[in-house]
Design brief:
Elements: E1 13-18, H1 21-32, E2 35-41, E3 47-54, E4 57-63
Parallel strand pairs: 1-4
Antiparallel strand pairs: 2-3, 3-4
Length: about 70
Amino acid sequence: MPIDDPFKHAVLGSGVFYQDPRAALAWLQAAFGFEPSMLANDSDGRLVHAEMRFGDGYIIVDGEWAAHIA
């Protein structure tokens, strides 16, 4: 989704964490219509951070936190 006004802030934001964030991006786009707006990879090509937008809202999509896995 192009940003028409770079100074307009999102209305709602949240974060979600997945074991396979790349698969989650595809699923969120197909299931709910979210559009990728930012992807960050590490030097090995692993996705380390992603953001998706839907209307004025956004979600942050990241991998699971190893320190918080029970």
